[in-house]
Amino acid sequence: MKYNVQDHISAEMLRQEVERMNRFGVRLTGSAxxxxxxxxxxxxxxxxxxxxxxxxxxxxxxxxKKASIVLHDVDRTIDIPVxxxxxYSGETPPxxxxxxxxxxxxxxxxxxxxxxxxxxxRVNNLNVLPSKLAFDERRSLPEGxxxxxxxxxxxxxxxxxxPFLAAAKNVGVKAVICIWQGFPxxxxxxxxxxxxxxxxxxxxxxxxETAGNTIxxxxxxxxxxxxxxxxxxxxxxxxxxxxxxxxxxxSGESVIVNTHTDGTNCIEENGPIALLALIRALKDKPLRRxxxxxxxxxxxxxxxxxxxxxxxxxxxSRWLADHQSLWNGKRGHLKAVAGLSIEHLGCLDWQxxxxxxxxxxxxxxxxxxxxxxxMDDIYFSALQDRTRVRTxxxxxxxxxxxxxxQPLFNEHIPEIALVTAPDSLCVISETNEMDxxxxxxxxxxxxxxxxxxxxxDDMPAEAIGHCERYSLxxx
Length: 475
Description:
Layout: H1 11-23, H2 32-47, E1 53-72, E2 77-80, E3 84-85, E4 97-104, E5 118-124, E6 129-130, H3 131-134, E7 136-141, E8 150-151, H4 154-160, H5 165-170, E9 175-181, H6 185-188, E10 204-207, H7 209-220, E11 224-246, E12 253-260, H8 271-282, E13 290-296, H9 302-305, H10 316-322, E14 335-343, E15 348-353, E16 356-363, E17 366-370, H11 373-382, E18 391-395, H12 406-410, E19 415-419, H13 439-457, H14 461-464
Parallel strand pairs: 4-5, 5-9, 9-10, 12-13, 12-14, 14-19, 17-18
Antiparallel strand pairs: 1-2, 1-11, 3-10, 4-11, 6-8, 7-18, 11-13, 15-16, 17-19
Helix pairs in contact: 1-13, 8-13, 11-13
């Protein structure tokens, strides 16, 4: 069987849905905008006549409200542009903190030099980690596509080459200024990174390289600055994960389709719009298995939402831990024979260009994890009708697997997981990064996943096979 999603939605309708999502505001975990988006998803599912299941989640929410750096020069003050806040770092009093700027040669050396002062650290573009250390490439379309030799970019840099803020707090540093190094200023703006760390208890801000050079010069001349980062806390903030189930004709097996609802811009969390489109196209069609469509929260607050009992560090792990009867196949439970994770659709390719950041005229490289060779074959078969495609499939490698497909893989559910990773993925901006989004591409990608779903539903579990394990030490 083959179903056409264009019977239910067009590219223009997808763009309207993405713009509607943007109008809620920036959907950081537990924010008012995020809650409104979750309510919108619930309403859309209910309008389709579906029963909506809800998992309430509670956590302590931190949100920055005001940030500034004022440099005190010899006879004047200079406002230094702030690129972004360091999420869940810390906060200052309303008047900020004032202290001498102290440049540290590396964020990995001791902070003792900056005790009672404001530390300044360079965060260099991570361009030394071999891609083969983190990724095991399967195949590509067109043939010959590969990841860069070294993995780089703001996300990887902030995850691996981050300042050790806890060490700064422990020795009594007042605040930390983090300088993006090796990135165009335009790329550094608005990067909400890193989003994977616990609350640090010390305020920190990011500045771009140009502003950073001014700060470095001031530090070398023992200048002072006033650093302000005001934030609010909401204790026991309540937010929900939602899911719905489409019934199948046979009992005992399930397919999980998941995404996340929280994030920063139009490409980071547009997966729910894709899932809604798939549900509309499938809800009145005959299905062999139960199909569980999961809209999880917590992707941008992983320390509070991950669950080792559900297979890993991504937010879907909490849902898997709490709903084992829907997937683990034990004691009469449903057995998940496959899982599809859908994130970051419609991404256009932008790359650093000189001192700027510009479109290349191509689509972004689609990174897709496939859980075994059969799932890889299914995915490539599903691409046949695409007019634009730049796809590279991957296997989980060296215990690394990015995106919300990771818990499925860790629980040995054969997966197909889209996790395209452009450098603008975590940017908060007034444009919501709409200039980096293409609704026609998104429509084609949704059709690809519809094709995957129908092919999987036509196959017996034995043909789908078992999920592979991580490949190791292939560097």
